[in-house]
Write a structure and sequence with these properties.
317 residues, alpha+beta, Rossmann fold
Length: 317
């Protein structure tokens, strides 16, 4: 099977991880390799990969690179070119690659992948994960994590507060998450990042009663950055959703348990906490969206229609 590597050096954000992967690729001329400098270059690069009949597409970049590639590939449906996808931990937070079990060192991950494919052991690298299909004004998008309102503002805060590089990654996201949890627990900053959002939600065709939300998100991964997993629904459905009402109670006491996916007795619908797995949902809001690291600005009356796509073929790298 032929391996192709797409290195996305977005906005000249070259880092040591990407450089190390490029050095490895220089020693493997049989592995086809392309570089892009921004998200808009991903689609034509993938078209060239398709023309060269690449079977395994390695994504040497961050979560945004994976989101762009997913969107390009899945818009064609199952009848189009659908290579195996192997994201490397070469970005800032690497949420997707990390959840698939990828090695933290992208050079080791790519080396292990090349070795396994060459030895006919690719089967041991296969991982099952559905993805989100979201119909929005900007066009149909695919990814693994979709946050609404406050989460969009929080990620923008990370971008504005920290310089380019590692600080914008897991460390910066962790600092902002911890700060926001504390502020939410003591009900500070009610008019800023933590302003409540009016969000109208329908879950599997049924209207969801709460309308004023402090937190709203949907995900198909098992864990996010730093291993957090704020989903505890038990329904046999692919889309994990969590909603926290503005009138939530006891947030300071239950926040850690929620982030670990281990809610206590106080985490209940009666106290404003909701987590449920569904097959589809529709969300209407005025706020922005964060989709695997990609920011979509607020649009008044924005409607987001979400279903699950289980046609993606993942490989751990």
């Amino acid at each position: 099977m032929r391996i192709g590597v797409l290195s996305n050096l977005r906005a000249d954000q070259r880092n040591s991880k990407i450089d190390q992967v490029l050095s490895l690729l220089a020693r493997h001329p049989d592995v086809f390799h392309l570089e892009t400098s921004n998200g808009e270059d991903v689609a034509p690069a993938l078209a060239e990969m398709e023309g060269r009949e690449i079977d395994i597409l390695v994504l040497n970049g961050g979560d945004g690179t994976v989101q762009h590639a997913l969107t390009h590939l899945r818009r064609k449906g199952d009848d189009g070119w659908q290579p195996w996808l192997a994201p490397l931990c070469a970005g800032r937070t690497n949420t997707i690659a990390g959840d698939l079990g990828g090695l933290r060192n992208p050079v080791r991950g790519l080396s292990a992948l090349i070795e396994a494919v060459g030895a006919g052991r690719m089967r041991e690298l296969i991982v099952q994960r559905p993805v989100i299909r979201a119909e929005i004004e900007e066009g149909v998008q695919y990814g693994t994590f979709l946050g609404f309102g406050m989460l969009h503002r929080a990620v923008r805060l990370v971008h504005e507060s920290f310089p380019e590089g590692k600080a914008r990654g897991t460390w910066g996201a962790g600092v902002v998450t911890a700060t926001l949890v504390v502020r939410a627990a003591v009900r500070r900053d009610a008019g800023g990042i933590l302003a409540d959002d009016e969000i109208e939600v329908t879950l599997d065709g049924e209207p969801f009663a709460p309308r004023i939300m402090r937190l709203a998100m949907v995900c198909t991964l098992r864990h996010l950055f730093l291993g957090i997993a704020p989903f505890w629904g038990k329904e046999p459905a692919p889309l994990q959703t969590t909603f926290v009402e503005a009138s939530v109670e006891h947030l300071g006491r239950v926040a850690i348990g929620i982030l670990r996916g281990r809610p206590g007795a106080l985490v209940s619908p009666e106290n404003g906490y909701h987590s449920r797995n569904v097959h589809e949902l529709e969300v209407r809001l005025d706020g922005g969206l964060i989709f695997d690291g990609e920011l979509f600005d607020p649009i008044p009356g924005r409607t987001v229609r979400i279903t699950a796509d289980e046609g993606v073929r993942w490989l751990r790298a």
